Amino acid sequence: MGMTMSEKILAQAAGKASAKAGDILWVKVDKAMMDDVLGPRVEIAEKLKELNVGVWDKDKIVVISDHYTPPANATQAAIVKFTRDWCSAYGVDNYYEFVGPCHQIMVEKGHVLPGQIIVGTDSHTCMYGALGSFSTGIGSTEMLGVLVTGEIWLKVPETVKVEWSGNLPKGTMAKDLVLKTIGKVGHVGATYKAIEYVGNTIENMIMDERMAITNMAVEMGAKAGLIPVDNITLEYLKERNINQNFDFLKSDKEAHFCDELRFNAEELEPVAACPHEVDNVTEIKNIEGTKIDQAYIGSCTGGRYNDLLMAAKVLEGKKIAKGIRLLVSPSSKDIWDRCAKDGILQKLSDAGAVILSPTCGVCLGLHSGTIAPGEVCISSTNRNFIGRMGSADSQIYLASPISVAAAAIEGKIADPRKYL
């Protein structure tokens, strides 16, 4: 019997010829990522001292301070300082701060390659599957074991094949596609499974869009989200001076999938996830007119170059509604610089947007744009749980960057197609 992508990657990492769903394997880790929230300050540093050991391979450890940067208070500044000092003490040179959300930095800096096993102390580590890696979030206790041994045990997940066919209609983006998928599967419908996205809709997507899709696999409970490796993958890597020859990793025709879902992209309309669950998805036409207080474009899900470019196309020559806050945080410093050079940030600013530093702060209500009781925000981020972006008495709608931009113009949730 053939193997799925997950089975192939995990078997190779365990030194085995084959693997099947349900197997428990000890696998070698290619990269271990920590952020400032669940990084060395959370029991890891103390336990390493107790064990009196170093780390297994400092070159395979990447630490990124992103949630608390720029720090909003002394407590956050102390956490970032601790993280920085720990990396210095353990010789971890792959340390980044003030340059953007960890997941974007991981792919930009070449720390993600096809066929790798990557673990990280953040649930959206699953994003790296856009480049054909098996990547998943783990807790600090598990990360301690990885730092010492370079290995982790994993149960080989079953795989759900999600096939999207056809061209995306005007006014829709990858965010609409993934929200539609999540609405169908449910927020626990893929628990400890891998989601593998296939079909010509996915094949025709640029990497910016693919990463938005795999980033949100965890919102269905999935262990990993994967997209087969192809020429678009290799071109993206070449742009980062990675010129290795990689196999076009994909599932075998004879592979077993626990479920197969098929969607027609040409039937897709702009959608949004309504409060307070990511799977509470409906077409925007059903909630059009809902008043908002804040619109946010950013994060590791919706702040890449293409996201800001498309938002600027909607906003160019227009002004945001009176009393509305439009915040924009590019997903990395590199994206910030590129958008500035290409005039995208200027167009957004001219429309009334406030351009923020690249940070995770707004996404989970830590700083730079938290929302007050009773306020409504529409956001291109990945979660809309109660209190996620500030007050527990607030509401968050999730939508594509162009839908967020359209809402900012009208001061209420709006169909973006009229602006394209």
Features:
420 residues; alpha/beta; Aconitase, domain 3; 2 domains; 5-stranded parallel sheet; globular; iron-sulfur; metal ion binding
Report on this structure.
[4Fe-4S] cluster binds at residues 300, 360, 363. GO terms for molecular function: 3-isopropylmalate dehydratase activity; 4 iron, 4 sulfur cluster binding; metal ion binding. Pathway: Amino-acid biosynthesis; L-leucine biosynthesis; L-leucine from 3-methyl-2-oxobutanoate: step 2/4. There is one protein chain. By secondary structure, the chain is α/β, with parallel strands linked by helices. It is built from 14 helices and 18 strands. It is 30% helix and 19% strand. Helix 3 (74-89) links the parallel strand 3 (61-65) and strand 4 (95-97).
SSE order and pairing:
Elements: H1 5-13, E1 24-28, E2 31-35, H2 44-51, E3 61-65, H3 74-89, E4 95-97, H4 102-108, E5 117-120, E6 134-137, H5 140-149, E7 151-155, E8 158-165, H6 174-185, E9 193-198, H7 200-203, H8 207-215, E10 224-226, H9 231-238, E11 259-264, E12 271-273, E13 281-283, E14 294-298, H10 299-302, H11 305-315, E15 325-329, H12 333-341, H13 344-351, E16 354-355, E17 376-379, E18 395-398, H14 401-410
Helix pairs in contact: 6-8, 11-13, 11-14
Structural class: alpha/beta
Averaged pLDDT, please?
96
User: How many structural domains?
Assistant: 2
What is the CATH architecture term of the largest domain? 2-Layer Sandwich
Distance between the termini: 47 Å
Largest sheet: 5 strands, parallel
Level-1 CATH class name of the largest domain: Alpha Beta
- Unreliably modeled segments: none
Please give the radius of gyration in angstroms: 21 Å
